[in-house]
Amino acid sequence: MVASILKRDASQYTHTIDGRAETGAIFFDVINPATGAAFDSAPSASPEQLDEAVSAAQRAYSLWRRLSFAERSALIGEFSEAIESHADAIADVLTREQGKPLSEAKGEVMGAVHELKVLCQFEPHPELIRADDDSKVELHYRPLGVVGAITPWNYPILMAGSKIAHALYAGDTVVLKPSPYTPLSTLLVGEVARETLPPGVVNVLAGGDELGRWMTEHQGIAGIAFTGSVATGKRVFASTAETLKRITLELGGNDPAVLLDDADLEAAALGIFESAMNNAGQACIAVKRVYAPESLYEPLIEALVKLARVHRVGDGFEQDVQMGPIQNRMQFDKVLGLIKDTRQYRGARIFEGGQTLGGPGYFVAPTIVAAPEDDMRLVAEEQFGPVLPVLKYRNIDDAVRRANNTRYGLGASIWTKDSERGAKVATQIEAGTVWINDHTRYEAEIPFGGFKESGFGRENGRLGLLSYMEPQVIYHRVGWGDRKQALNTDSKTSKANR
Ligand code: NAD
User: Fold this and answer.
1) Which DSSP symbol is given to 261?
2) CA 269 to chain centre
3) What are the residue numbers of the active site?
4) How far apart, in whole angstroms, are the C-alpha atoms of residue 256 and residue 368?
5) Is 285 close to ligand 1, i.e. is its CB under 6 Å away?
6) Helix, strand, coil % (nearest 5) of the chain?
7) pLDDT class of 316 with cuts at 50, 70, 90
8) How many Cβ atoms are within 10 Å of 230's Cβ, its own excluded?
9) Which of 148, 225, 341, 398 would you call most buried, defined as having the most Cβ atoms within 10 angstroms of its Cβ?
10) 153 Cα to the center of ligand 1, angstroms
């Protein structure tokens, strides 16, 4: 198994269907964003292969759901250990196709391993709703069936690990489809599943966007767990309505960071910069706009510029690189378009960065922008790149109103030395997570998701696990005593009348 991962020939990546390796008639190129050149290819699944995978997952479901939680946990544990033992090989492919520094790629694989390990603490036990002379009522949680998992290109392995973990602990089986930009590392996860899990429990298919659409329309899939953009999330929502699938949508964000006037400036600058530049800004919960009071505005920009100047950008395989390229050409062009728009915007000023690194690959320098208005594209849109706008606010009400003035609502942060004051402001923010003196903390134990157009439902923690399950009430009637007596009396009366 290790050898097959490490010493593969080009184009040897395969789908995993019913515990078998399957290839196809059509392949598509996979590009290394650090060079802009194709380095390998992936097979593209056909509708028939999707049908096969769904049937295999349905067969596996009839057995998997009957295992006890402890039995499932033991098998998931073996799977997570196998992923861990192949972490270097998977991280290598992840850096090659996604671009992130190798150490971060390894961290991502370990994040997936962590998800697979820790969700076992949330075994859903039946809840007693009522027990009296009349009735005993319990709330149970049942698995959904086959879950279709659809993942994006920014954190392919973390998202794959998370969705597999939720589904398998819930008692569901999985058909997983990675983004066509980053399919290979996820196909390796499929290989590990082939070796460690019963056939059909985890199926992995690579393909284009149309494969995702077929999944959302498929009659044999009971739930869709989707992570991606708001635009695609809305298509998924519409498409799953036809079969009323259960869904979780983890979508985009435009996270604000709000500095209060008593913020620790150095800590805030560092925390905000790391969040904004992490994964080259391509994180749903990156800080994407910063609001600072007049008194801290210039010192904050100065501190951010200092950090941007020494941030090492390059190929993720180079030693000590802190930031890789933008993952794909389309996103690279979008980020450059936002920088161009910013240059033309009256009053906007680019203090640092604002250019590519030149040469091949999709590299953009860390960019710090003084932004005059909320309605400029760089502030209003999810930039998904290393370009951070900083805005000035007049008072807290102004900052809160502007932080909330967006269709997104994923994350937000408040920076202050007074945590009570921070918590008070946090209650006014419309976002699924509000951090105080931190940002971009994603942990398997803590429910995660968005307000407004940033999503639907939650993943992680107990709430997350329950999103992959169906509540079922078991209602025992125990109190027929009086009525039975009435029945007996009636029958005695009728006997007497005979
Ligand atoms: P995307 O929406 O373009 O694609 C996501 C996945 O959906 C891919 O696998 C794609 O092939 C598939 N897809 C495309 N069209 C589809 C359709 N009609 N039906 C079903 N599936 C379809 O997103 P992306 O560009 O890969 O990822 C970036 C976006 O993801 C950003 O907006 C980011 O904020 C968001 N994101 C959110 C979270 C979160 O947890 N909230 C995490 C990571 C990324």
Assistant:
1) T
2) 26
3) 250, 284
4) 15
5) no
6) 45, 20, 35
7) very high
8) 19
9) 148
10) 7
Neighbours of 3 (CB within 10 A): 7
Q: Which of 68, 50, 71, 56 is nearest to 20 (CA)?
A: 56
50, 98, 154: residue to mutate for ligand 1 pocket, most atoms within 8 A of CB: 154
DSSP line for 466-492: HTTEEEEEEEEE---HHHHHHHHHHHH
Cβ(442) – ligand 1 distance below 6 Å: no
The β-bridge partners of 287 are 255
Rg from Cα positions in the chain: 26
Locate tokens 């979508």: which residue? 251
State how far the Cα of 397 lies from the Cα of 412, in Å rounded to an integer.
15
Q: What is the pLDDT of residues 365-407, one digit of tens each?
A: 999 999 999 999 999 999 999 999 999 999 999 999 999 999 9
The SS3 assignment for 271 reads helix
Q: Would you state the structure tokens that stand for residue 436, as one six-digit string?
A: 């105080």
List, for residues 409-463, the tens digit of each pLDDT value. 999 999 999 999 999 999 999 999 999 999 999 999 999 999 999 999 999 999 9
* Sequence-separated contacts (24+) of 414-421 with Cβ below 8 Å: 414/257, 414/258, 414/260, 415/257, 415/258, 415/259, 415/260, 415/263, 415/264, 415/267, 415/268, 415/271, 415/272, 416/259, 416/260, 416/262, 416/263, 417/262, 417/263, 417/264, 418/260, 418/262, 421/260, 421/262
Strand pairing partners for 248?
225
Q: Which two tokens stand for residue 176?
A: 């997983």
Is the sign of the CA dihedral 119, 163, 55, 472 positive or negative? positive
Q: What is the mean pLDDT of residues 262-267?
A: 98
CA distances 4 to 9, 186, 197, 256, 273, Å, are 9, 15, 18, 45, 40
Nearest to 385 by CA among 340, 326, 319, 444: 326
What is the CB neighbour count within 10 angstroms for residue 325?
29
